[in-house]
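Re-run with default settings, no changes from the original entry. Doing this only to confirm the output is reproducible before filing.
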Amino acid sequence: MTLTTLCKEAHSNAVEKGFYEGKNSERSFAELCMLVVTEISEAVESQRSGKNQPSQYDMCYYADHADFNDKDVCKTFKENVKDSLGDEIADAVIRIADLCGYMGIDLESHVKAKMKYNSTREKLHGKKY
């Protein structure tokens, strides 16, 4: 999946699930950014609490083969993946993608350009850390 596709799908899903209806029909940039921050905070709490990370095998299954319409699949996902560090980081990425989709930001082009620019920068970008 490309970042462009991710942004479109994340925003489309948020719209479909009602996150842009009623009082939420006009979302502010600050509000959308704070939703990213809350997901990052949840990732920190997940790591602090020591929630086990699912195996790479499990994640490949869930990402590529799992039928989430199956109640048992959803149950095992909730028990083994939900609220894990990777799950919370994924939530933050999805929130960023939704923000970009809503605001019409071409995230993929920005990331590519920034990576190229960063490759030209000095060690630690001239900072202490």
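DSSP finds six helices and no strands in the chain. The longest helix spans residues 29-49.
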